Amino acid sequence: MHGIFFTGFGVxxxxxxxxxxxxxxxxxxxxxxxxxxxxxxxxDQVERLAMLNQALWxxxxxxxxxxxEELERKAQEVDLRDGxxxxxxxxxxxxxxxxxxxxxxxxxxxxxxGMLFEGSVFG
Length: 123
What we know:
By secondary structure, the protein is mainly α. About 60% of the residues lie in helices and about 5% in strands.
């Protein structure tokens, strides 16, 4: 009788552990499905933005006779606004050396006094 009690208790304990593991697996599967959906949505957004950027570039280059070199120079200028030439536009606050107020590094000039920022000088 003593052995049967402990064996029954062990089976019940194992069943509870299996139920908890099954719930954890289902939760992980749901999280994975959500992540896949979000990733697919982000990929779709990036593809759409790339297409729109290409359309905008073609319109601008046709109407204003801009060259690929001019586009590349502007891209490099914008890239340096955050203080790093890394192909990204990371925003961080920077203090204007003229008025001392804080602006976002994505802007090419101080929002308060209008001083032009120059690349990595303020990074």
